[in-house]
Amino acid sequence: MADLALAIDLGGTQIRVGLVDALGQIVTQQAIATQAMAGPAVVLDQIADLCAQVLSGTPVKGAAICAPGPLDTITGRVFGVQTLKGFEDFPLRDTLSHKLSMPVQVENDGIAGAVAELCHGAGRAYSDFVYITISTGIGGGIIADGKPLRGRRGMAGHLGHMFFHRDWPRYAGAAMPCFEDWGAGPALAERASARAAQTPASALHGRTLDARAVYDAAAQGDSLAQSLVHDEATLLGIGCASLIHILSPQAIILGGGMSQAFDQLSPVIEHTLATHLKPGFDGVALHRAQLGTTSSLIGAAALVFHPDLAARI
């Protein structure tokens, strides 16, 4: 029996393909920039080429691909990915299975990350947790009773689209903002740019800013940056509190690019939880994800080795 899985991580910026063993170790991998605007045929050719490179005749137990949603993990169809042109109501599973001449499972990348942390990362000690990825967007996955919570069409866990506050001034007269609109990296950068323009004494003044620049300035003692990080952590804490009240998990696990600032964010997130959680919901652990940028790839492979965690078909 082959002891390797073929794992594919399809993103709007990069495609990564690897061979992963049952312990979650990536034996080999290849990556390439996604030709995101070229359409599905070109992107699937890219995937097939990378798979041929990493396989090179190596037998595998199975294959799985993770991709941004929304997608139906039961039928393997992608409903539409903003960062990938032409992937509207696209039969990703069946098309890729035919191209690779082997069955391929399809999973949302947030759920794949949650499965990776469950099997090999910070979620190993828990049967119930929420995995939140925070970077240019907010996504994630929910583990309930030791398995991914899937819901209708396998689409549960689009955490970033939880609605927040009707009166958020940035969205006056527009659609109601959601968790992602408030808490993702671009929102932090936008708030930082607006405030830095009015604060000449700040190291952020006059710069083109992203979230990383704000965290770096805060670590160096810049008072404006520290205030921005405090506000960001408060927003994330409010989002986490809402999820805790809905799902009652044992833990919240934070991943994605912004989790690199976990040490800066976690004290305020924990304080916000202590302030806002209702009686009986306290005691939820807060952890940084352990698998970083490899989580989706490792999670896709874990679905091959643990069919009880895979989507029902």
Description:
With 313 residues, the protein is an alpha/beta fold. It has 2 domains: 121 residues, ATPase, nucleotide binding domain (Nucleotidyltransferase, domain 5, 2-Layer Sandwich); 168 residues, ATPase, nucleotide binding domain (Nucleotidyltransferase, domain 5), CATH 3.30.420.40. 36% of the residues lie in helices and 20% in strands. It is built from 9 helices and 13 strands. Strands 3-2-1-4-8 form a 5-stranded mixed beta sheet, sandwiched between helices. Strands 11-10-9-12-13 form a 5-stranded mixed beta sheet, sandwiched between helices. Strand 10 and strand 11 form a beta hairpin. Helix 3 packs across helix 9, helix 6 crosses helix 7 and helix 7 crosses helix 8.
> According to CATH, what is the class of the largest domain?
Alpha Beta
Number of strands: 13
Order of helices and strands: EEEHEEEEHEHEEEHHHHEHEH
CATH topology of the largest domain: Nucleotidyltransferase, domain 5
